[in-house]
C-alpha cells in the first residue's frame, strides 16, 4: 500500500494580498516532486484569492469551519461556503483552536462530521501538551482525540491525520524522527484495532511541529510519516525543500 506523501502549509493568521501573491508565485514556478500532494491553508479572507492564483495542481484548505451550513453564527464560515469558493480541504482540531480558542473534542468531532458530509477533505489534528508527554500519557491523549474524530468519519479516504505535539508547534523544538515515528506507529495500531486494517494501512498520518528544511528529510524517511503540516516554514521559500523532502 503506497500512501501519497502529503504536505500542507498552514499559513495561520499571516500574510497580506502582497505577500501571499509572492508566495503563490514562488510555488507556481517551483520545481516540485510530482508524487507529493500539496495543500495551502490560507486565512479565510484570502481563500478565494489563493484558489484563483494558485496553480490548479495544488489544493487549498480553510483553517477552520462551523457545524451548520448557514445562520446566525457571527464570524464563522461553513463547509458550503468553503466549497463555494472552490476550496476542498479544511484543517480541524488544530492545537491553536483547541488551546487558544477552547474548542472541545466534541465540537471538533461535530465539525469533522459536517465537513465530510459536505464534501470537504479534513486534515484532523491531534497532539499532546508538554506536561502530558512528561507525564507519560501521550498515547492516552492522542488515542482519545483520535477516537472522537474516528467516531465521526464514514469515509477515511477524505481524512488525513496530523500528529502535532503541542510542545513542538511554533517553538523551534521539532520532535525527533524517532519520537514522531513512535507515535505514528501507535496511531496506525490504534486504527487497525478500532477502525480496520485497510484504513490503518491507507490513511496518511502527517507530522507537524517546527518542521524545517533542515529537519524534513530525516522525518520523511520514517516508515509511518506520510507528510507534514507546516506552519512557520510554509511562509518561506524553504517550504519547497519540505515538499521535496523525499525527492
Ligand atoms: P510550526 O506550526 O511549523 O510553525 O511549528 C505547525 C502547525 O501549527 O501546524
From TrEMBL:
Matching CDD domains: TIM
Any single biological process term in GO: glycolytic process
Pathway where it operates: Carbohydrate biosynthesis; gluconeogenesis; Carbohydrate degradation; glycolysis; D-glyceraldehyde 3-phosphate from glycerone phosphate: step 1/1
GO CC aspect terms: cytosol
Any one Pfam family match given in the protein's UniProt record, by short name: TIM
EC assignment: 5.3.1.1
Keyword set, alphabetical order: Gluconeogenesis, Glycolysis, Isomerase, Lyase
InterPro entries, sorted: Aldolase_TIM, TIM_sf, TrioseP_Isoase_bac/euk, Triosephosphate_isomerase, Triosephosphate_isomerase_AS
Any one Gene Ontology molecular-function term assigned to this protein's record: methylglyoxal synthase activity
Signal peptide (residue range): none
Catalysed reactions, as listed in the record: dihydroxyacetone phosphate = methylglyoxal + phosphate; D-glyceraldehyde 3-phosphate = dihydroxyacetone phosphate
Subunit and partners: Homodimer.
Sequence similarity: Belongs to the triosephosphate isomerase family.
Function field: Triosephosphate isomerase is an extremely efficient metabolic enzyme that catalyzes the interconversion between dihydroxyacetone phosphate (DHAP) and D-glyceraldehyde-3-phosphate (G3P) in glycolysis and gluconeogenesis. It is also responsible for the non-negligible production of methylglyoxal a reactive cytotoxic side-product that modifies and can alter proteins, DNA and lipids.
HAMAP family per record: TIM_B (MF_00147_B)
Name under which the protein is recorded: Triosephosphate isomerase
UniProt source species: Oreochromis niloticus (Nile tilapia)
